[in-house]
Amino acid sequence: MLPQLPRSRLQVWFVRVCSCVLVWSCLAQLVAVGDLWRGRSSLLLATSSSSYSWGWNATARFFLSLQKDAAVSSFSPRAHSLPYPTSRLYKSNGYLKVSCNGGLNQMRSAICDMVTVARFLNLTLVVPELDKRSFWADNSNFGDIFDVNHFVNSLRDEVHIVKRIPKRFSKKTLDNMLEMPPISWSNEKYYLKQILPLFNKFNVIHFNKTDARLANNGLPLAVQKLRCRVNYQALKFTSQIEALGNKLIKLLKEKGAYAALHLRYEMDMLAFSGCTHGCSMEEAEELKRLRYAYPWWREKEIDSEAKRLQGLCPLTPEETLLVLQAFGFKNTTQIYIASGEIYGSNHRLVSLRSAFPRLVRKEMLLEPEELRQFQNHSSQMAALDYMVSVSSDTFIPTYDGNMAKVVEGHRRYLGFRKSIILNRRKLVELLDLHARKMLSWAEFASTVQELHKERVGQPVCRKVMVGKPKEEDYFYANPYECLINSTECIGASSSWDAIR
């Protein structure tokens, strides 16, 4: 019997191995079936949700069922803990250097466009330069606002991005570098047929203006989705900005819901738009002198009142107060002012603060030492306001500038969070009628609410104006290609159940 012992042990070992293999195979099948069932369940949820009326809550359910993983807040640690993709291997056609112009959000959208252009043309992109010559004279570099390494690594499966032009290029090559602004609102065919051939002669091309250089509409779906990926995933603020921005958000949320009011009643906006309604004669003259001091601002003589009646001016603090009350905001509402220095300083906010005692700014919530490193850097301060605005319960811009549009689009991407987009032309008419006592308060308030029922950041199609790109809806305010897995744009109704 002794010689058979090893054979018996071998049989027992063989049976155990086979049993383990069988058990693990069963487990693998169960996991696969579970994943399949979860995917089917998500599809069923999306299908059933789409059959409901597009009320505010139904919209959020539908969006979240489709975007659960994609729509991760750019301020969420989870969004940054995902592994970086594998580098894409391609033969570069040359180096693209870009200098962004304008404020933070104008530059932000331009960066997204330039990454997209570099990807489409198989170019190597140099980390963008930021505007230092604008009204704000902010000397911040890209790395002072955005996490450079995250930007480079998170996009390495799409485009090769370098921090600087390689030293192997001679001074002569760089001196002969082609500098040019691309044609505004151009589609991918322009870049393919007119820009790409230039790299046969130049190793490096410098786009010295980048604002609005890519079309809003008519672009391939992959191009539009890449613009969103850059904007909502790759452009991560620095750890210092995010830490302080998250602290602001936490301080506000600890005290309840809050509305972010982008009160664009600032010196630069008033000077360059020519809007002086509510200003004294001395203030109007000061704003005019500032406009003339900047030679590249083409329009000098402006009829302020005519422009206001066209809805092309930001609301004054006093007008904003009446509009907020008409919407039904109570004096207990917590309101965060997301803006720079209000023209006329604190005395222009007296009535607004009297009506809304819980009116706050970042300077009121943070210690001076915490803000010291960001002071005199308008873009970094704007980044803090951007974070707070995106995370707010309600966002209300008093002017449709770049920040208003980009924040609106970001909030759509994160689940159609409520953004009240003011119809200033109609509001000015109503405000003037009420001021002349031709419209009672009850009539004024009800008309204001009715006027904005469909202007709260719900799913809608972008307005397309063939041949008039400046008049059509801005891609970054409503990037609907990135929001739903459908080629259709579905209108929506909404309610006033959010923060009041």
Tally of extended strands?
9
Largest sheet: 5 strands, parallel
Uncertain runs: 1-7, 28-72, 490-500
Helical stretch tally? 21
Distance between the first and last residues' Cα: 89 Å
Instruction: Describe the oligomeric state of these chains in a short phrase.
Output: single chain
If you compute it from the alpha carbons, what radius of gyration comes out, rounded to the nearest whole angstrom? 27 Å
What is the molecular shape? globular
Give the ordered list of helices and strands: HHHEHEHHEHEHEHHEHHHHEHEHHHEHHH
Number of domains: 2
The amount of beta strand, in percent, is 5-15%
What is the helix fraction of residues, given as a range?
A: 40-55%
What integer is the average pLDDT?
A: 84
Strand order of the largest sheet: 3-2-1-5-4
Pairing-aware structural class of the strands and helices? alpha/beta
Q: Describe it for me?
A:
Belongs to the glycosyltransferase GT106 family. InterPro entries: FucosylTrfase_pln (IPR024709), GDP-Fuc_O-FucTrfase (IPR019378). Keywords: Carbohydrate metabolism, Fucose metabolism, Glycoprotein, Glycosyltransferase, Membrane, Signal-anchor, Transferase, Transmembrane, Transmembrane helix. The chain is an alpha/beta fold and 500 residues long. It folds into two domains: 140 residues; 244 residues, no CATH class. It is 47% helix and 6% strand. The protein contains 21 helices and nine strands. It has a five-stranded parallel sheet, with helices on one face. A four-stranded parallel sheet has the order 8-7-6-9. Helix 10 crosses helix 18, helix 11 crosses helix 12 and helix 18 runs parallel beside helix 19. The N terminus and C terminus are likely disordered.
